[in-house]
Amino acid sequence: MGVGSGMVFVLDGEPDTTQKLTTSLSNSGFEVTTHTASGDLLTQTTKNFPDLVLLPVSRDIDRASQVIKDLRSRSDDLPIVLVMSESNIEPLAGLLEDGATNYLILPHATAELISHIARTSIDVRRELRRYKRNEKDLKKLNQALIESVRALEQDQQAGFRVQQGMMPESPFSTDGLTLRHLIVPSLILSGDFIDYFELPDGRLVFYIADVSGHGAQGAIVTVLLKGLSARLANEFDELQLDDAGKVLGWFNQELIACRLEQHVTMFLGIVDKGAGRLHYANAAHFPATILQSAQGTKYLEMGGLPLGLYEGARYSGRETALPESFTMVMFSDGVFEILPEQSLQAKEDHLLSLVKGDNGDIDSMADHLGLGVVNEVPDDIAVFTVARAG
Q1: C-alpha–C-alpha distance, residues 211 and 334, integer Å
Q2: Which are the contacts of 69, defined by CB distance < 8 A and separation ≥ 6?
Q3: Which helix (H) or strand (E) element contains residue 31?
Q4: Run of H or E residues at 62
Q5: 85 with 200, same domain?
Q6: What SS3 class is residue 345?
Q7: What pTM value is reported for the model?
């Protein structure tokens, strides 16, 4: 086909009208045929159905109206262009309401105008059909995406239940110590993890860990950490880990052996309840642990490299006396994302004030941080307390 590119049916009208329409459109590259409105046009197969119909309107307006309705019953988007004379223009509005899409007034319409109206009508129909096809494809794609997201969410919820089942009891009490924790994930699954257990000699081991990454990627590593905790609890004496720094070194080597893409920060403490002392080590976990007591509120020392990155990394163990009454408060670094202060120093000062003002109570701190009302947080947030009342 030429410039026009389309099949046009001209319904029988006055010979001069039919000739003008046929000649104008044929010269513009359209494939043009004439048909009887009430006969062979409606019996055309889909393959041979036109892209455009030109309907000359005579004095028989009712017939023209019925033809439009018949065509509309066959196709709801077929362009139907009325061809009218100035003396017979009065019924135009009614025929447009019946379903006609445009009109020409003869003899004033030139060959160029006839061709333009035909080409525009066909192009509009094709664009509309293309849009509907794209919309249909998009709806299918959206539905498939919704189903995939729903399946993923179900998997994530199953993973969440598994992850929650791995967490230690909260609150947990032993020999005057009480441990509580709260984890608010940015997604369904969390890369923050907390664990604690007692050794056969009565010492209490606890840690807070933050796995790089969010969601399932980080959660998989927390499963690994739980398994390592179980090994550590069962084999502590055999492993001959006589201080907290060596425990972190052991975690580091075990994680490196797994060839993970993620790294882990961790603060680990060992409470000697009989001696009233804390042995601890830090593998780049930030913010530092806060110790709150009658003697004041302060950060414990930091230091160390993340776990799972550097073969043979060494971690320094530290020791401090524990007051008769105290609270240790640990956060994951996601807490900084929800604090209003801009500078890091101001955020650290905020946490110190928060712990001091709430006396280390985890529920009060969570309320002041807004963790009980937020629906989404930009990063996983963990809060963990180890306390002893005097």
Answers
A1: 11
A2: 98, 99
A3: strand 31-35
A4: helix 61-74
A5: no
A6: helix
A7: 0.65
